[in-house]
Amino acid sequence: MATAFRRGIFLMAEPLIKMRGITKRFGGVTALSNVDLDAYAGEVLAIVGDNGAGKSTLIKVLTGVYQPTEGDIFLDDKPVRFSSHAEATAMGIDAVYQTLALADHLDPAANMFLGNELTRKVAGITFLDNKRMRSETERVLMERLGVRLKSMDAPTESLSGGQRQAVAIARAVYHDDLRVLVMDEPTAALGPQETARTLKLIETVKAQGIAVILISHSLDDVFQVSDRVHVQRRGRRVGVVKTSESNTQEVLGMIVGAEEAA
Amino acid sequence: MAQTDTHMSDSRPFTERLEPYIAIIGPMVMILAILMFMGIAEPARYFRATNLNLILLDAALYMPMAMAMTFVITQRGIDLSIGSIAALSSILMAFLIKQYGFSVYIAVPIAIALGAIMGLINGLIITRFNVPDLIGTLAMDLVYRGFALVIAKGLVLARFPDFLTEIGRGQIPGFIPIPVVLGIATMIGGYILLKRTYFGRYTIAIGSNPEAAELTGISVNRHKVYAYVLCGACAALAGVMLTGKLNAIQATSAPYFNLHVIAAVVVGGTSLFGGRASMLGSFAGVLLLSMMINALVTLRIEFFWQSVASGVVIVSSVALYAWMQKKDRDGAGGWLAGLQTPEGQKMLRFSAALIGILIALLAIGALFSGSAAPSG
Predict the structure, then answer these.
(1) Which of A127, A146, A163 shows the shortest C-beta gap to B196?
(2) B78 partner at 20 to 30 Å CA-CA among A260, B227, B234, B295?
(3) Closest Cβ opposite residue A147 in set B1, B19, B328
(4) Under 8 Å CB-to-CB from B335, ≥6 apart: which residues?
């Protein structure tokens, strides 16, 4: 499979994603100024920072929702420009939002293929192939995420928070050419047990050679799963630390800016 | 995760397996209640074959519209103009046939196409001009009804070719009436549309989570317009069926279509808050309303009580589903866990209350009709 191949080439040589000198202004407000970001295949990069530090804007630029005022994005050393989120998705950069963007009344398979349904033709008329979508969903959930749902018929609203998360992630990883997965506050609304499951999902995705970019307010989660931490403050990157060589105190200091004051 | 979940799958509680069928259980309980009540009160006249035929004939008229309205309501919309669309398109059809000598085989498709165009106008007004669906279709209801009155004045157009009366009240010998076949066919078509096509899938997605639907690249507005077009076409079909049934049409025909159809759909478990659709429920809802109205007639209860009964059924159904939906969202350890045991009881209790209200209503009605001075 393509993932196994990708896992082989992730030797930290070159970043998969390079953002250089990203500036984003909304009218007179500068949301991002001259931000650099590197993300490697097969690692979890956490982006932390206070409210209004520019985390969301940064990933919206990366996923094509916003276009940068200045700066360049490189994917595999090739410059790319996204004029829409769909273009970014086509290049293998996808995002799982905090709200998960699931239609709660549809079953997990319908959600996974929403907007991208599998079909078959009966007498020249195109019908949805619910059976195949269901088996594909089961396969992807099991093979890629190690998750098995108790019922594929139940509406998604009846699933637990972690399972809903799994369905949303499965939707992103179903595309075999997924290379970068952005996760926006995945654990914000979850209890401790569901949080642990979601963090495990993140590690599973990472192990498949995908670059995971995690936005989180919870430093506990960040230190548990990330490889590096990118700290934003007031629209600037104040530093990047290796998680293994840092601690909560240091990162917290960077977030609130205590270091500069000292 | 996998282990605990697979363990669960074998011992799923009864109420959870029941859950997909909740929508159909509500109206079914009420239908049974009516059958039982009538079995005691007026078995001879209610269960006659001709009377059952009457019930089916009445229900058939509403089936196409209930099918289309299920899509509109699932998308969090509403269409209050179907009565006028039915009247206007069949008036136009009647003029084409009577005045301009059109063949009935051409006039009927033209009527349905006209209905679709009126639905298209509704849809465009709602999506392009951002007029709320409630106001938009209510206003267009006035417009269409106005046009019908302008065109037909006070005329009653009557006596149409056989093809039309066959559509409206023809009978397949030894079997069910032709309009019933038409109605059931549209319901089956609607079921397939809902479960097996992009349109149905996106309809639920749009009603369930419009933002998510937009994010995944679904063209929300286009699918909303489709639903209104379908609704218009089905209203016109119902207008054609009504014209055939009465063998006459006038500008003020079909005044109660709107609320009757919406009531049937909502009673059937399709949620006014979007996302929850049940075609089978809509079918049962249509049957229920027709049976209830027929029961009132059979009991010789004054015509005006019908409107009271319909209103009570609508309010209680919407209240029930709103309540159930609120329970869903309370969460606190998964709503299924919290809802499993009380669910069946709640349904029962509610149904009992509803039946109680209905019986009380019928009793009051019977009392009044008994003591009132004979008026003919």
Answers:
(1) A127
(2) B295
(3) B1
(4) A157, A158, B327, B328, B329
- Distance from the Cα of A253 to chain B's closest Cα (Å) equals 36
Is A126 near chain B, with CB under 8 Å?
yes
- Compute how many other C-beta atoms are within 10 angstroms of the C-beta atom of residue B170: 17
Nearest-Cα residue of chain A relative to residue B195: A128
- Which residues in chain B are closer than 8 Å to A104, comparing Cβ atoms? 208-209, 275
pLDDT in tens, A42-70: 999 999 998 888 888 899 999 888 899 99
Give B156's Cβ-side CA count (13 Å radius).
Answer: 6
Half-sphere exposure of B308 (CA within 13 A, CB side): 14
Give me the amino acid identity at B179.
P
Per-residue pLDDT of B214-230, as tens digits, reads 888 889 999 999 999 99
Closest by Cα among B290, B258, B253 to B73 = B258
**Looking at chain B, which residue has its C-alpha nearest residue A201?**
B1
Spatial neighbors of B7 by CB under 8 A, at least 6 apart, are none
CB contact A120 to B (< 8 Å): no
Rounded-to-integer distance, Cα A159 and Cα B16, Å: 13
With CB atoms and an 8 Å threshold, state whether A114 touches B201.
Answer: yes
Structure-block tokens of residue A90: 């086509």
Q: Which residues of chain B have pLDDT under 50?
A: 1-11, 328-341, 371-376
Instruction: Write the pLDDT tens digit of every residue in A236-259.
Output: 899 899 998 888 888 988 888 865
Distance CA A21, CA A70 (A): 7
Taking only the tens place, the pLDDT of each residue in B29-50 is 888 888 888 888 888 888 888 8
Q: How far apart are CA B283 and CA B285, in angstroms?
A: 5
> Which pTM value belongs to this model?
0.82
Asked if A153 is an interface residue toward chain B (Cβ–Cβ < 8 A), one would say yes
Q: Which of residues 75-104 of A touch B (CB under 8 A)?
A: 85-86, 97, 99-104
Q: Would you say residue A262 has pLDDT above 50?
A: no
User: What is the tens place of the pLDDT at every residue in B229-287?
Assistant: 999 999 999 999 999 999 999 998 888 888 889 989 988 888 888 888 989 999 999 99
